[in-house]
Amino acid sequence: AAMSLGDDALVCNFSRCRARLSGFAWVTACSHVFCDQHGSGEFSRTPALCPACRSALAGKLDIVRTQLCPSEEYKAMVLAGLKPELVLDIAARALAFWTYQVA
Predict the structure, then answer these.
(1) Of 13, 16, 15, which Cα lies nearest the Cα of 25?
(2) What is the pLDDT of residues 32-52, one digit of tens each?
(3) Helices (H) and strands (E) in the chain, counts
(4) Phi, psi (degrees; rounded to nearest 5) at 33
(5) Second label for 75, Cα 20 to 30 Å away, from 29, 66, 91, 94?
(6) pLDDT band at residue 3, thresholds of 50, 70 and 90?
(7) Cα 35 → chain centroid
(8) Residues near 96 by Cβ (< 8 Å), separated by ≥ 6?
């Protein structure tokens, strides 16, 4: 199946929520994503555990709150100065995450 960029929306992986995500979302190193409300509540606890798979999220970048529709200014600068191979590696990881989520 071809990957759709417009039809599919990410949904909160919190089992009792499943809301379509917009604005901000929380992304985990274990490839789960949560709405701002559930992410803020779940990840304020220490140690943080993924509500979807119970993985420990202890690393500094194991949980990231991200803006789903970043500004043009952000998009223009976030990868500026990085080698093309690194930009492609980051893009490949992002596409793998998206594919996992919408499968």
Answers:
(1) 13
(2) 999 999 999 999 888 899 999
(3) 3, 3
(4) -140, 140
(5) 29
(6) very low
(7) 10
(8) none
